Amino acid sequence: MALPRIVSVFSGAGGLDLGFHEAGFSLVFALDRSLAAIQTHRRNFPGTKSIAADLTELGPAGVLEQLEDMLNPGEAIAVIGGPPCQGFSRANTNSRADDPRNRLPMLYLQIVESLQEKYQVDFVLFENVLGIRDAKHAEVFSGILAKFKKMGFTADVKEYSALDYGVPQARRRVIISGFRDRTVAKRFAPVKVDSTDLSVRSAIGTLPEPTFFSRELDASEIPHHTNHWTMRPVSKKFSQPNGAEQSGRSFRRLDWDKPSPTVAYGHREIHVHPNGRRRLSVYEAMLLQGFPPEFVLEGTLSAQVEQVSNAVPPPLAESLATAIRDAMSESPVVEQ
Which domains does the chain have, with CATH numbers? Predict the structure, then answer.
């Protein structure tokens, strides 16, 4: 059967999109507020219409208008995306149930509902942090699930670990999958990957030293990979005999022989390289997220750090997409 075409909302740099692309889905449209993320998306997905816009201003009607010339009425589509999660993040110790950003998941689903009026939405994939299920966000989360049901989707909520899908990173996220067809929902079963070595060393151990950031530096001048750059190590901690030791969130040093902790960095909180002499480069963080070497992030150093932090690991995304593709095939349902 023909696969539905993908509409990506809150796309970021396209980690989730890349997984669906690799699984054989066609990406028709992507939208994100960050211009740098959309520049990245355009570079890596040249056949997709990618636009930078604030969804709170564009609204469902604006999304429909963008799609008008690309899709036929009644055409089969699917919607994927991860609404900004800072309001739900457990790392945000000041998170509140009434954080304005907590309304973005419902806006995401309102867009899906609007798309249903004109197209056949076969499935919706919704990614977010574990904190969205915390007690203080119970009202928001129950509202999200109720919206899935109201729109006619059979919804499933699961926590996924990137480690189970070949990514050398201890990253766990909540995925809500909603299917128009209950049979497809029953078949949906992502397959875990058996990986013998998911250490930091296996991902970045053979890389040369990165280039240090300077205001005069042109990205084209960075050797090995355009994103292989990092902040200059100015703290005295990096000059200690054994390098920077663990010191709160700001100096979290990676272990060569263990997976990376979650690649999600705040301002100047990029993890410290296992050698203790500097922070990770953006490219090293990309590899720890499971991005392929040919993928390139656009924008300033800080914009690239934000993009890699917000991304869904592409191998996890591909496993989800492959499971959806297989579930939508014509094979009979196997009772569990």
Answer: 5-193+312-327 (3.40.50.150)
